Amino acid sequence: MRFPDNSSNILLSERWLSVIAHSLFSSWMLSFIFEGEVFYSLMGIFDFDSHAMVFGGIAAVFLGLLLSGFFIKTKRGAKRTFLYSYLFCIVMSVPFFFPPSVLWTVGIIAGSFMSGSCVAAWGYYLKSSTPKIGRIKTVADMLILSNILMILLNMAALWISPHSGLALSMIMLILAFLFALKLPGDNCISSSASFERDKSRISIAPLLAFLCLFIIVITINSGLMYQVVNPAFAHLKWLTSWYWAIPYIIAVFTMGYLPQKVNRAYILYVAIAMIGISFISFMILDHNIAGYIAVNTLMLGAFGVCDLFWWSILGEMLDFNKNPAAILGIGLSANVLGILLGGLIGNAIVSVGKQSADPVLLALAVVCVALALLPFLHRYLSSLLRDHTYLRIFSEISAQEQIRQPDYDAVFESLSERENQVASRLLQGKTYRIIAVELYISENTVKYYVKNIYSKFKIQSRGELVNIILEKRGIGIGK
Question: Where residue 372 sits, what CATH number does that domain have?
Answer without folding.
Answer: 1.20.1250
